[in-house]
Fold this sequence. Notes:
- The protein is of the alpha+beta class and 298 residues long.
- The chain has two domains: 3-94, Phosphorylase Kinase, domain 1 (2-Layer Sandwich); 98-297, Transferase(Phosphotransferase) domain 1 (Transferase(Phosphotransferase), domain 1, Orthogonal Bundle), CATH 1.10.510.10.
- The protein has helices spanning 9-16, 49-52, 55-67, 109-130, 161-164, 180-184, 191-206, 222-230, 236-239, 245-254, 266-276, 281-297, and strands at 20-27, 30-35, 41-46, 76-82, 89-94, 98-100, 141-144, 149-151.
- The strands form two sheets. The protein has a five-stranded antiparallel beta sheet with strand order 1-2-3-5-4. The protein has a three-stranded antiparallel beta sheet with strand order 6-7-8.
- A hairpin with a 4-residue loop joins strand 7 and strand 8 (149-151).
- The two termini are 19 Å apart.
- The relative contact order is 0.13.
Amino acid sequence: MRDxxxxxxxxxxxxxxxxxxxxxxxAKDAYQLRRRDGxxxxxxxxLPWHLTWTADLLESRGPALCxxxxxxxxxxxxxxxxxxxxxxxxxxxxxxxGVDARVDGALPIDLAVYVAMKIxxxxxxxxxxxxxxxxxxxxxxxxxxxxxxKLIGLEDACVDRRVEASGPIRRHGWLPYISxxxxxxxxxxxxxxxxSLGACLWAWLAGxxxxxxxxxxxxxxxxxxxxxxxxxxxxxxxxRPELPAGLVAIVARALAKDADARFPSIEAMGAxxxxxxxxxxxxxxxALAAWVGAKTAA
Length: 298
């Protein structure tokens, strides 16, 4: 592990006190852990400040998040956990070997449809606990070496809207997949998740986001925000002429600017995707496992 990948000293000391140690740096503020007795692997996420500031909300929803059981949702073991004297909150979840869905290049058509279909099932299962997700992106989707599709980051939905609107943390990390109504803060329901999943599916089919963000602009790219609110993404039919017309229509409906023109629910979008899947789901899962295996071996 490189020096710049090593966790902060307070993490090492606090984890050692719990018989845990860091074995890999997965992403910014995310670490793979293992128990010193070798029993299982975990992921520790150091939650961003805008979640720490709403720790009371995380704590109130934490037991429900930890109790959530669904094959398409990564299991959470602890939420809003303080380690040592550091005022940041932390989350512990199961480790899932594989890759996240921020892929380079387009996915095979059936795999893209299968992944999106499975996420509709996960979002539907999570809704009684978190309501609408409101900030779904490919970074919230894990593709396992066994061909499973897992939703992570449900804690990102536990943000008080008053904190979101209070400054630059608004839209933290969610471009270019956030819905127009979330940007405009005009109130939203489950159809905002339909838009975000439509944007993810567009990206998986096209090999790039539908509303590109300028390098270095982060979440303050006004051109990208304007495009999400006002512009249609490039035509998928022109980018990939081999795409079935029905699938192109599903993505276009999901990405409608007017929520009333979208699928009425994430379940309705899932039903449309099941109709568009051109192979048996079990075959798609095996194909996804092979694809992920090739990616992790590269």
